Amino acid sequence: MAIKLKSPREVELMARAGEVVRQVLQRLGEMVAPGVTTGQLNAQAERMTASLGAEALFKGVPGRRGP
User: Fold this and answer.
1) Does residue 59 register a pLDDT over 90?
2) Residue 18: which of 44, 42, 54, 46 has the closest Cα?
3) Among 6, 29, 33, 66, which is disulfide-ready with 10 (CB 3.0 to 4.6 Å)?
4) d(Cα 52, Cα 21) in Å, to the nearest integer?
5) What angle is formed at CA 57 by the lines to CA 56 and CA 60, rounded to 5 degrees?
6) End-to-end CA distance of the chain, in Å?
7) Is the pLDDT assigned to residue 45 strictly greater than 70?
8) pTM of the entire structure?
């Protein structure tokens, strides 16, 4: 099987997606504290993802969680 190279556009989209993830995880890390619920973290992640113009494609997809 040959390796399929990404186009410059695909690489740019991947970089933008990675930046969204970085920003969201940075903010969630700042929020983690005793008494903060996973529901609160999830709500913040959803709001922030949307505000950054992104969409969590796998949210709500049933299936195995984790390795």
Assistant:
1) no
2) 54
3) 6
4) 10
5) 85
6) 25
7) yes
8) 0.80
Which tokens go with 15? 């970089």
Distance CA 54, CA 36 (A): 24
Alpha-carbon distance values, 53 to 5, 34, 37, 39 (Å): 26, 30, 25, 21
Task: Please say whether the beta carbons of 49 and 20 come within 8 A.
Answer: yes
Which CA distances in Å does 44 have to 5, 11, 25, 33, 65? 35, 27, 10, 14, 21
Q: Which two tokens stand for residue 50?
A: 């949307």
- Please give the pLDDT value at position 65: 67
Mean pLDDT computed over 39-47: 96
Contact 49, 24 (CB under 8 A): yes
Per-residue pLDDT tens digits for 6-36: 999 999 999 999 999 999 999 999 999 999 9
